[in-house]
Amino acid sequence: MLRSISLALLISVAVSFSPSHNSPLKRDFGLKSAEAKDAPPVNIGWDSHSPISQIPDSLVRPGDGPEGNTPMRAKFEKMCREAQIKITEAIQEIDGEATFQEDCWTRATGGGGMSRVMSNGRVFEKAGVNLSVVYGSMPQEALQAATERGVDRAKGMAPGERVPFFACGLSSVMHPRNPMCPTMHFNYRYFETDGGVWWFGGGTDITPSYINEEDMAHFHGTYKKVCDNHDPTFYPKFKAWADRYFVISHRNETRGLGGIFFDDLNDRDPDTIFEFSKEALGSVVNAYGPIVEKHKDDPFTEKEKEWQQIRRGRYVEFNLVYDRGTVFGLKTGGRIESILMSLPLTSRWEYDHDPEEGSKEWEFLQACKYAREWI
């Protein structure tokens, strides 16, 4: 039997080979000073984030970053802060044992953030909800990673020209212990770049290890109601978008069973899109909490736990290779602990694993290869 594999080595490799953007290497890790001085630059922002004991009332400051919609920036940050408190309190109540550790920081180029992370709980192996408010300038490849239309938005720019930007978002991943409880992810964000360009993005998706039709109907049904409250075209459009986005291309399968996902949303008044984002973010607990409560004490076998670990390996593959938030954070010198918070404590990669046809594991994999409607 193969044991669960620690992610420490995998993460260290991924971080060590992050692309350069002229950040000096200031920690030599045992290298002689001359060797450290000549070491190649890396993009992990070690010294661009300063821990603070208490986060300011607002990280949005007029005059920072490109000219833009400062009232919307402040309103979006306020919404994210309130949601972070509500969601973490609800998850702590469900867990009944562990509490969230809070870390606050500011960023040298402007903004900062707050991470709340729980580990080794009774119900949740790991859970985190991260607030980020970031000002700065990003390389064009980061702009391409930040949005689906990034390639078009970089047209006409001189080679090497950096893009001034503002970004605010709240992101989360919840990894329960019980393989009958699904992992859940959400991210809601607001972007502005130089020249008055703005857009909203985000979504909530679910990653179980086994199919439960009733659970999927509840989760997707919750978000269909949210979407229908704002635009009847949203749910079919954003559900299909999630099915396209959360794909592990090198395996031709999704990492889970979808939800909603949207990006580059700026086709109507920003306050209108804000209200949609607010309701979607405010529905996370209602969509996810009852499912965890229902299954947190379900019995499971060692084989079912092993399958959960294998599916978490797929989760890692998607996040480190394809996820826009991860790529954007690494390319803009983001706070590494916050960026990689989404990874589970343990995962598994079993050589040439192929579930037996007709098994519950095989049925789940079919749903990852061929998108289904759940409501």
From TrEMBL:
In short, the EC number is 1.3.3.3
Q: Which InterPro entries match?
A: Coprogen_oxidase_aer, Coprogen_oxidase_aer_sf, Coprogen_oxidase_CS
Q: Which GO terms describe its cellular component?
A: cytoplasm
Q: In which pathway does it act?
A: Porphyrin-containing compound metabolism; protoporphyrin-IX biosynthesis; protoporphyrinogen-IX from coproporphyrinogen-III (O2 route): step 1/1
Q: How far does the signal peptide extend, from start to end residue?
A: 1-16
The entry's keywords: Oxidoreductase, Porphyrin biosynthesis, Signal
Q: Which GO terms describe its biological process?
A: protoporphyrinogen IX biosynthetic process
One molecular function GO term is:
coproporphyrinogen oxidase activity
Pfam families in UniProt:
Coprogen_oxidas
**What PANTHER family does the entry give?**
COPROPORPHYRINOGEN III OXIDASE, MITOCHONDRIAL, OXYGEN-DEPENDENT COPROPORPHYRINOGEN-III OXIDASE, MITOCHONDRIAL
Tell me the subunit arrangement: Homodimer.
Family to which the UniProt record says this protein belongs: Belongs to the aerobic coproporphyrinogen-III oxidase family.
Q: What is this protein called?
A: coproporphyrinogen oxidase
Which organism was this protein described from? Triparma verrucosa
